[in-house]
Amino acid sequence: MVSQRRRTPRVWARPTRALMDEPFQLEVACLPPHCPVTLRSTLYSEGNDLWEAFSHYVSDETGRVNVSKDESLGGLYIGREPMGLLWSLRLAVGGRQNIRLRKKNIQTPLVVDISLFDGHNTDNFNTQTALAMTTMERWYMAPGVRRIEVRENGVVGTLFIPPGPGPFPALLDVWGLAGFMEHRAALLASRGYACLALAYINHPELQLGSGMGISYFQESWKLLQSVPQVSADRLGLLGSCFGAAILILMASELPDISPRCLVAINSPSGFFKPGEGKYLEKMKKLLPEPKLDANGHLITKDAILAVGIDLERSLQAGGIQCPTLLIVGEDDQNVPSIESAQRLEAQMRAVGKGHLVTKLSYPEAGHLIEPPYHPVLRCSTFIYPDQPVTMLWGGVGKSHAAAQEDSWRRILEFLDKHL
Known about the structure:
The chain is of the alpha/beta class. It is 21% helix and 29% strand. The strands form 5 sheets. It has an 8-stranded mixed beta sheet with strand order 11-12-14-13-15-16-19-20, with helices on both faces. Strands 2, 4, 5, 7, 8, 9 and 10 form a 7-stranded mixed beta sheet that branches. The radius of gyration is 23 Å and the shape is globular.
């Protein structure tokens, strides 16, 4: 009689090295049939904070689990979610909380470990022995992308240039009042666009810590046009939150700025007209005392709506001449992005330019619409303007994750068409 040995369970991911916006395949094999297991993902941020996610599966009759096809029965998400072990990552209990996952060294990957455990577990993973494990690298920079720090004519930022001689279409990438980030620009360069990630607020190398004025952005545009690897007549604008409002102002009111296209993510442009810096101070002075929810989280959307639209103060977008893509999270608790987008659409229609506007509106998506598979974060610490608060951004798990994935695909299609 031939004895049968129990096979050692295996877990593997394909590819093990990929860009952050690329999906992966995750499979488990060599389990007993109909065996309950837990898959757990972990990564350490550059601040050494542990992020984790876990989900429950049951192997099929052949002893296999395919995360791309099988449904999670529990854990941090349920249903068929091929990338759930990334977007559901959260800060581990016992460590710091309410912190955004921000990749500062963009030239190194996020290293994600995937571990397999017996049974359906929810905690105490450190006291258990994993049945199997695999490791993935998630990159924001593709091989050959060049990262160049920019310190010229007062402009501070980072330029990412795709592999090859160019000339490339290019983008000016501006975030909100939370400050300077490079990861989106690096991903865009990995997709073929030269991209200048621009610092303009709360940066140690800028003289005005509370925000640079509009002339600074004009200078940034000229600098990007002058880069030898950039096709100067194929430039676009892409921004989030207050950064998007600044870019809308540039496209609408500055005659020397002629973008080929504009992408605005959750902009408050219908309520604020960016001026010459001191953005946070002006906002705090303008708004009534913002309210806190039951958890002590700051909600600024309702305070902005309570002020109402003042035509002298709000941005007039009718001067925009280029195709414009508006990304709206309907659960945005930070700014009235729905109302702002509606106002911009109305202004464009009033001057016969309604055909230039495309709006993508996502139910249960919050303010922080990142590139895909980035952890969904409903609230985090924010400096407003000189004291830390816990800001409520909004967004509901799977819905917000789906919005990030779909909007990124649509942004890339929009840029491909117009740049």
